[in-house]
Structure formats: C-alpha cells, structure tokens
Amino acid sequence: MRKLIVSPSPHIHSKDSTRSLMLDVVIALIPAVICSVVFYGWRELLLLGVSVATCVLLEWAVTRFLMKKPSTIGDLSAVITGILLALNVPYTLPWWILVIGAVVAVGVAKLSFGGIGQNVFNPAIVGRVFLLVSYPSQMTHWEQPQGLFGVDAITGATPLGAAKEGTLGQIDYADMLFANIGGSAGEVCAIALLIGFVYLLCRRVIKPWITLSIFATVALTALIFWGVNPERFTDPLFNLLTGGLILGACFMATDYVTSPMSVWGGVIFGIGIGFLTMMIRYFGSYPEGVSFAILIMNAFVPLLNRWFHQKKFGRK
Amino acid sequence: MKALILTVAIITCLGLVLAVVLYLVAKKFRVEEDPRIDEVEKVMPGANCGGCGYAGCRAFAESAVKADNLDSHFCPVGGNDVMAKVAGILGFEVKAKAPAVAVVRCNGTCANRPRVNEYDGIASCKVKASLYSGDTACAFGCLGCGDCVAACQFGALSMDPETGLPVVDEEKCTACGACAKACPKAIIELRPKGPRGMRVYVSCVNKDKGPAAKKACAAACIGCGICARTCTHEAIVLENNVAYIDPAKCKLCRECEAMCPTGAIHGINFLKPLDKEAVKARIQARKEKKEEK
Amino acid sequence: MARRTFSIGGVHPHDSKISRECPIEPLPIPPVVYISVSQHIGAPAVPVVAPGDKVKVGQVVAEPGGFVSAFIHSSVSGTVKSVGPRKDLAGNNQTHIEIAVEGDEWLETIDRSETLVTDIPDDNKAILDKIRLGGIVGLGGATFPTHVKLSPPPGSKCERLIINGCECEPYLTSDFRTLLEKGEQVVVGAAILKQVLGDVPCTIAIEENKPEAIAHIKEVIAILSAASPKFAGMEVLPLRKRYPQGGEKQLIDAVMHRQVGSGALPISVGAVVQNVATSLAVYDAVLKGKPIIDNSVTVTGECFLHQANLLVRVGTPLQFILDYLGGIPEDAAKVISGGPMMGRAVANLDAATLKGTGALLLLTEKQTRRRPETNCIRCGKCADACPMGLEPFLLQKLSRLGDVEALEENAAQDCIECGCCLYSCPAGIPLLDIIRTGKGAALAAIRARNVKK
Predict the structure, then answer these.
(1) Of B177, B174, B180, which is closest to residue B45 (Cα–Cα)?
(2) Residues of C with Cβ-Cβ distance to B134 under 8 angstroms
(3) Contacts of C52 (CB under 8 A, 6+ apart)
(4) Residue by residue, what is the 3-state secondary structure of chain A?
(5) Residues in C touching A7 (Cβ below 8 Å)
(6) Which residue would you say has higher pLDDT here, C403 or B99?
(7) β-pairing, C234-239 with C271-275?
(8) Would you place residue A199 in the very low, low, confident or very high pLDDT band (cuts 50, 70, 90)?
C-alpha cells in the first residue's frame, strides 16, 4: 500500500530559503566587488578570494569536526562575511593579516556562539575591528591604487583621516560618489553600494528602516554640529559619503541576525548607530566610527527586541 | 602617597556605610520562615523534577512543613529513605511505599506494527497526537517521537532505534512520573517494581476490537480474555477490549503470560525464561482436575 | 485594481486555481456511505437510527447532542447497516452511521426542481428553525452551527452581514464555481440571512482573482434588487488577493476596518460572516426544504490529470471520489482535505467526506515535503507574515520552553493557525507545529482562570 505523507498544515512553503536570501545579498554585493577590483586592481581580487576561502573553509572544518553537525557552508553566510571583511580593509593589507581577521570573524564572532543565527555581533565587523586594533598601522595604510584600466584615484589618507588631521583640502562630492577617493575597497564607490541596496529592497530581502534611520541621524547630527561650527566640524554630505557609512548602513547594520526584528526597534537601532558614528568621528581618537557604532548597537539588540513589538491585531 | 591613602580611606568609609545600610535593610525586611523548611530541603534530592506534584523541592518542603501528616507528600525520587528523613525532621510517622518504576505499555515495534503512512512534521508526540492517530494503524500505541525521553531528567529513558520504542533504565528511573505525564497516549504507567524487579504486565493499551487491533499490530492485546479466565488470583480485568493486570493482586505465576495468544503480556526480570509448554500443561491439568470434581 | 484588504501581515502563495474552468458535476452515489456524527464544532450528534432501518435522502439520522450541535441527515436512500466506531481521516475512531445505498429516493418535502425561488418568508423564527433543522453549519471550514451564529447574544447588535467569497486558499475553486453557477441562489440565501439578522446591509466579499464571479454577482444583485425590496442594501466588494483574507477576523478588518479583539466574537464589532456555500445551503434549506446532504468538493493538484469540482453526497469515502477520477497518480505523496494552507493531511483514505469537506488536494513530494530545520536567522519574515501581528519566532521559543505565562502575554492564544509563519520561514522551522502546543497551553490557562472566577 502506498504510504502517504501526513503532516500538520500548512502543506506548501514559500521559495525563500536561508540560502536564497544570502545569495541575494551576495548578488547585491557584486557591483561593489566589481568596482573595487576595477579601482584597486587584481590585488583586491586576491584579498577577496583569500577572505572568502578562509571563512568558508573554517566554517566547514569547525562544523564538521568540532561541532559534529551537518556543515552550514551551503547557506552562503560565510561567503558574505568573507566579502564584507575584504571590502573593509585597505587593499594593501598583507594577505596573512586578512586570514587572521577572517578566522576571528567566523571562528570567534560566529561559530563560538553556535553558528549562523546565534551570534550577537556582526562577524565581519568583529573581524575588522580586531584587525584595526591589532594591526593599526597596516589597517590605516593607504596607498595610491593601481587601477585595472589605469583608473586614476587620489592618494594618501582617507578623507575622514585627513579631516581629523586637519589637512583636508577641497572636497569633490562627485568623486566620492563615483569612487575616486582613498579608503577601504568597499568605501570606494557609493553608487555601486546603493545599487546593491536597492536590489535587496526590491527583492524584499531587507527593509529600509534601519538604513534610512542611520542616514537620517548622521545627516541631522552633522547638520547641527556643522551649523554651529563649520570651521571645526565636517558637513553632512561629506559624512554621508565618506568612510564605511554606506557599506555599514546598507549591508552590515541590516544583517538579519544582529539587528532588531521590529520596525521601531530597527529605527532606534539605526539612530544609535548614526549618533555613535558621528560622536566617534567628531570627538573620538579614531577617524572612523561606523564599525564601533554597529558593534555597540549590536549589544543592544536583545533589549530592543524585548522592548519593541509588532502591533498585534485587535489590541491596543 | 596621599592619593593612595585617600583612596583606601574613601573605600573603607563607603564599605562601612553600605554595610550599615545593608544590615538595617536586612533587619527591616526580614521574612520569618520556618527553619525546618531549609532542613527538609537539605535532605531532598534537589532534582526539582516535580514528580511529587510540587513545583520543586523547596515547594515540597514548604508544603510538608505546613501539613498535618505526610500522607499526601511523597518524593518518588528520594523514595522511602528521604521520606524517613523528612518525617524525622518534622516528627511524623511515615509508611514505606513500594518502589515504583515506569513501564512502557506498548509492544508496537517496527516489526510488530507496520507503518501505514509517513509523518513529516516536528518530532513531538504531542504535536503528532493532536494531528492524527499516528503513522501506524494503531491509534493507541507509541508514536515514537520521544517526548518521554525529553521529559526524563534522570537519563533513564532512551529510544531503541531498532524497535522505535522507548526503553526504561530501571537503575536510573526514579518513578517521578514526568514521562507518564509527557506521553499523550498515556502508555507509560508507574508500576510497583516488584520483588527483585519481577513483574508481569500487559504491554498494550489498544482499545480496538480484536480483529482491528490484531490487524494493526501483531503483538496487540486483542481483548480475548483468556488471561482473565486463566488467572486464579482475580488480578486481571478486561475493560474496553484491553486487559489490565492489577499489580497488587498479581502473584507473578506467569500463567497469563504463557496463555496470551499474541504475546502482549510481558514478564520481566525473572530468573528463568518462561517455559510456556510446562505452564500450559499445568493449567490444563488443573482444569481437568476441576472437571473431574 | 481593488485596494481593500486586511491591515496586518499576510502572504501571497501562488494561486494555482487550476480547476477553475471545471463546472460542478454530480458524483455518482457510492454503494455505501458512512455518515459521521461529528461533522461540526461542538457536541457530536446523537444517532436516532438503528441497523436495519430504511432511510430516505434528507431524513434525519442524528439529532443535536447539545446547544452547539447540529442535525445530520441521510445523504442517500437505503438501509442502515451499522452504527459504530470507524476511523476518520485522521485515523481516530469516530461514530459513523453506515448506510447501504438502494436507489435514490428523496423525502417528498424536498423541492428538487431547478426553479429559482425568490419569495422569502417574513417569519424570521420559522426561517431560523428551518436552518436549524436543515443541519446548516458554516461551510467555510470551521463548521460552526449556523443557527447559533445567527442568534446574537442579548446586548449585541449586528450591523453588517459579510458573505465570504474570498476563497483565499490556493487551489480551491468550489466557492468560485458556486458563485458562477448558483449565484442567484447564493444571493437569495444571503438575503435570507440578512433579513434574519435584522435587515442589515450585506457585503459579498470576493477576491479580485475571480472577476467573472464579481461581475456575475453584481448582475444578479442588480436584477433581484429591482424586483423586490428584500434585496436592497446588498453589494459586492472586490478585495485584493492576499492570504488569509477569508479568515473571519481578517475579512471583517478588510470590509469594515474594524478589528475583533482577542478572544472576542465578530458580533462584538457588529459583524456576522457567512461563507458562500453556507449561503447556498441556507437557500436550499429555507426555500427548497433541502437539508445539507451534499456539498461541492474541488478535487485538484498539478499531479492530477482530472481536475474537477464535484457535487458529493455527505459520507462518500474519499477513495471512491479519487477512484472516480482515475485513482491517485503515482507521484502524489500527500492527500489533503481542504486547502494547502489550512487543510488536514489525510491519513486514512477510507474515511468519508463531511459537510465541511471543501476540497481534496493532491500534492507531490517535491511540493509538500518539509525542509530540514536549520537555525533561525532572525529575518523576521514570520512576524511580517503573521496576520494577527504576533511574533512566531518568539512564540515558538516560548512554546518549546513551556512558559505559559509569557505565551499568554505575547498573545499565543490569538493565533489563527493560518500557517503564514511556517509558509514564509526560510530556515524551515516548524513554527506553527510548535506554536499550536503553546496556543493550547495558553488557552487552557485562560479557561482555568475563568472557571475559578
């Protein structure tokens, strides 16, 4: 006799899977990856390869041999961590330092918490911050890039670093938007990042609230300070376009696992990130603060999830 | 140097002031509690399993201290030893209870009970039971998802992958009853352990009529009543097409076990294996003697 | 494009209405029917026939076993063979009345002609009585006895009758076909219902993926309301396609913009919702003297060659229906009674249809197999999908922990078991499976507290 399957309802499932969602994020990162390779040359591609390979291999080895569970590399989350980490370091970084960063990102920040879904902090950011603190000179060493097609980029310190040093000259916003500035690979082309962000929104992978509230807070905070003292503080547009803000706001702060689940939780989360970023930029000893801001706000996520709930049907 | 002294002085003063505050607060908000509660709690096993019917060992102790006697209090985990100690502290007499053990009353192994459909959902007996009768034709038997195993705090239950049924480790079982509560089909029963662990029980709860039960499971109790007619101690009752052996009346003669046509009656922990033919011959002889009279 | 819909959550599963072009055709009468005494929510009915009795179509075979209960009628003519336990579609024993079919002889009181009767009697009490005696229950899925729903508790007042023609579940088409083929009868039935409820306005809500039905019902209402004032105040409201629009609370929200509170009945916001098929049954019972003895059943599935909408006598074995359409195809792995979102998987094909059986759906292994469970990635898709605004990711955790207090605080008892959470979970977590147990625990706690009071 035929054995029918019996299970509780519902009997059909949407096509979304962890893998398909992560694949969408990878696709969304492709423009930024292409941009960075074009502007920084093959070395950037090497870094990306090293980073992704380390993350994936480590996750495979740890789940297989230490946790003795089915491997989770198929869900592609390690690939995303690898790409984001590589986009977050200078292209001149020695590859072995990047390997250490990837090990910290996936091994310490993700798998030691129990793997995907269990981590409190964004793995790529933990990896980056670890490197920033451990190898400060290599992590802040910016060199004139040798673009693939001889694309010319400006030299020297990142605009934010220059602003901190007080050596910032004339700013060309169009350059910032279209990638002609120094910095980490992923900070380079704002347009490429925004294209990816729009793709994620269209595919309904993420919701815009966190990102928008970060942008709004950064702009507002900068507007207030700049309005009061334009000599000392940089202007809002500059702050929106520089540093890892767009990369952080679009791809790292919106990480499912380490961001709040409710809309209002997300808005508060974004305000916190935006405000902390600006405080670190204006008053901190580091020129850039997005990573630290996201890490700090990651810690508040459980609390935000507890405080902010969805509106329930038929209840006040 | 000055800074050092100042630091030490400030910390010391702060410590003193806070100590006084703490002392006063503790004095003011002190809750009078029967000291015997702590004593009783100390002799409890501390498993907080809830087998006694209270939320935990502390709750048991609080209730026991207030009670007039210990008739309604029994710690199945600690057993008579612990109850004797509790009674000693509280000045009560306590009657020793026969030690019990969890018994799985289902014989529906993969071999005995063919699967007729495939369950594809969360591995939970509770969910499965609320959905339908199970993946076999028997609507009463073990669902095999291991809710009882998950409920056991003492590691006394495990699923046998070969039979698909839970197995009780009698050494570890404390008869707390958590598994019996967790089982949605009420298959697990707490039965007295019996002398040297010997006991006879019906390993089936199928209430279907004989043919239906037999069709669903080769080792089902088909409610034929042979056991009840064979038993000379009136220990077996037949209700809803299923036999039940009263452990208080059973004399462990194993005659029912020998006579059961489906092998639904189990005798365990006996020294010798059951010699069915000898027992049947004995019963036959007794019958003939009766008829002669 | 229709804009109206409910306000929170919802999902958009693929429509899959592949049997929409199949007209409703009567299924031959099986040689034996098995009529369950538990075909409605509430107390099972009490059989009033004994083995050997001769029965006719429409004759009462079981009487209500309580206030919330319903009459059950013989769907065939023949001899009662047995009254006793038989396995239902879930494999559990249930009392069934087995009737061997002999001919097809109907009670004389039933008007079997096709002529449309539009003459609604004025005596509401008599109408209610006819609905009760006709064994009418809600045919939208819940099978709640209709006469109970039509008798609002004192102090509450009905302001609007909503006829639920959403059929928001994928695959199902029986309501759609009913609207197309028996639209007049449905509208007259709705007019009867609205008169009983005190001449309230009536909205027939239909999702926009059924434009033919919307047009047809609009036309029918126009013709009928021109003929008699009893059909005034009726309208068709197209709704945007979205699951679970047909959920009672969601439908009221969509039509009236009012949200029924937790644990409250629709009447608390002045609404009464009845299904299209129920409306037709009311017409049959009140104006034709015909109790519920058959209902239309969609038999469908991509793996199935012969899609059909069948008029099936109550108590027909499922196997008989499937055999009539050529048997179960090789690659069908699951048979579902009802839609793919809320229907019940059939464990026993020998089980018989009930009044509320609206569909038999066959799905292949690929379509229906659960995905392996992986870690929650906290994407929040379940919370976005929940039409009750609950947080399934949280409720499943609390259910696993058995924290009844927190479950109640987070409104586990409000869950309508629509399945949107499990449907949308990318990690394959069996959210609803687990939440059901938590909902049960929370409801039990609330009941226990109310009893104490």
Answers:
(1) B174
(2) 91
(3) C79, C80
(4) CCCEEECCCCCCCCCCCHHHHHHHHHHHHHHHHHHHHHHHCHHHHHHHHHHHHHHHHHHHHHHHHHCCCCCCHHHCHHHHHHHHHHHCCCCCCCHHHHHHHHHHHHHHHHHHHCCCCCCCCCHHHHHHHHHHHHCHHHHCCCCCCCCCCCCCCCCCCCHHHHHHHCCCCCCCHHHHHCCCCCCCHHHCCHHHHHHHHHHHHHCCCCCCHHHHHHHHHHHHHHHHHHHHCCCCCCCHHHHHHCCCHHHHHHHHCCCCCCCCCCHHHHHHHHHHHHHHHHHHHHHCCCCCCHHHHHHHHHCCHHHHHHHCCCCCCCCC
(5) 334, 345, 368, 370
(6) C403
(7) unpaired
(8) very high
Q: How many other C-beta atoms lie within 10 A of the C-beta of residue B52?
A: 22
For C340, which of A10, A18, A312 is closest by C-beta distance? A10
- The model's pLDDT over C168-198, given as tens digits with 9 standing for 90+, comes to 999 999 999 999 999 999 999 999 999 999 8
**Is ipTM strictly over 0.90?**
no
Q: Which among C90, C433, C440 has CB closest to B121?
A: C433
Q: Give dist(CA B226, CA B245) in Å, integer.
A: 13
pLDDT at residue B239 greater than cutoff 60: yes
Residue of C nearest to B119 (CA): C347
Instruction: Report which of residues A155 and C422 the model is more confident about.
Output: C422
Residue A5's closest chain B neighbor by CA? B118
Query: A12 at the B interface (CB within 8 A)?
Result: no
d(CA A59, CA A71) in angstroms, rounded, equals 8
Nearest CA to B156 out of B226, B100, B117, B208 is that of B100
Distance from the Cα of B140 to chain A's closest Cα (Å) equals 17
pLDDT exceeds cutoff 90 at B185: yes
Q: What is the mean pLDDT of residues C47-69?
A: 93
Pairing, β C46-47 against β C60-63: antiparallel
Q: Give yes or no for a contact between A56 and A22, defined as CB atoms under 8 angstroms apart.
A: no
The candidate with the shortest Cα–Cα distance to C102, out of C75, C77, C82, C81, is C77
Is the pLDDT score of B287 beyond 90? no
Between chains, do B127 and C436 touch, taking CB under 8 Å as contact?
A: yes
The length of chain A is: 316
B51 forms beta bridges with none
> Does residue A294 carry a pLDDT above 90?
yes
* Strands of B32-184, DSSP E: 100-104, 117-119, 157-160, 165-168
Among A3, A4, A5, A7, most B C-beta atoms within 10 A, so best to mutate, is A7
Amino acid at B182: A
Q: What number is the average pLDDT over the span C373-377?
A: 92
C377–A21 C-beta distance less than 8 A: yes
Q: In terms of CA atoms, which chain B residue is nearest residue A1?
A: B116
What lies within 8 Å, CB to CB, of A45 at 6+ separation is A37
